[in-house]
What we know:
- By secondary structure, this protein is of the alpha/beta class.
- The chain is 40% helix and 16% strand.
- The protein contains 13 helices and 15 strands.
- The strands form 4 sheets. Strands 2-9-8-7-6-3-4-5 form an 8-stranded mixed sheet, with helices on both faces.
- Strand 3, helix 6 and strand 4 form a beta-alpha-beta unit.
- The radius of gyration is 21 Å and the shape is globular.
Amino acid sequence: MKKITPSLRTQHITYAIRDIxxxxxxxxxxxxxxxxxxxxxxxxxGFSTPSHLVEACYRAMRENHTNYSASEGVPEAxxxxxxxxxxxxxxxxxxxxxxxxSEGIDFALSALVNRGENVLVPSPGYPLxxxxxxxxxxxxRPYRLDEEKNWEPDIEHIERQIDDKTKGIVxxxxxxxxxxIYSEKTLRAIxxxxxxxxxxxxxxxxxxxxxxxxxxxxxxxxxxxxVPVMTFNGLSKNYLAPGFRIGWAIASGLPELVGDYxxxxxxxxxxxxxxSHPKQFAISVALNGDHSHILxxxxxxxRRRDLTVERLNEIPGISCQRPNGAFYAFPRxxxxxxxxxxxxxxxxETGVVVVHGSGFGPLPAxxxxxxxxxxxxxALNEAFDRIDAYMRRHFx
Length: 396
């Protein structure tokens, strides 16, 4: 038999957040310890999924909700998302319950993009969009986030990146990896661009309740009821349940603009049957139940964020903007290095596992790395001590 040749659509798929694990395993096999600051999974760092979400899943299984559900989601979950959207000022056209927000993003891009077409993605930004567009043989066309303006999108650069093959704009707010929260002025400017060029906006708002500076998060779709917007969210971050793999996509905009597009997404949803049936019953209790865990989580994250920014800015050769949402920092390496080589060497020598900034897109050109500040303060201080010593050994 001949060797099996992988499809062309897989050639350019990378996912830096997990790809870096191979280097970590090399150090581990050699007997070195590791301080993991690479993956945004709060449960790995002592945060617990609220018990009422867990009980809702058990109750659904005890009541035999273990068959296939409706492809678009169980009515109870869909209605809970609809009511949450209305509270946020969004007028939903339709809602899909998905296997994590990532499946909703997959459906949205797959129903939108043909070979050779492009979607504008923030750079730096979450690499899932780049990977999915590579699989679709489309182009993830980067637009600049301005580090000097606390990582707000550069609207002029967005406009320059658009051509006749551009189908949409991805907005990640709060942003992963920078932790930036966008102003209403910026969001309205993005909406205006989308209207001028007949583009769909894909608004990833998975961290919308993890706001660390008290400013309100503004749902993009709440600012305009005409422009086509797909808003993505789920249980993984706000509700500390990443392993549930339950999310949703909210379609909004004028029905005559979004109707055919949403039906195409539904075709994809039907082809995969359904999201996990029993876990869908956690959605209603999450959105309508006790939210005390969010207040506790935000308070812990705020303290750890403040420690992170203070310690990073004290390290020679490192600087860091203050993240205002989510649980990531995106420090700049202010020495002449390749960021991927820097991160690999840092892991091998110190055991501090972070992710190279270029894994989140080609912009900015200067070197960065992403780290999570989910661990307790003791672990964070240990990581910063090691990074400080590393920088002084090699660059100062």
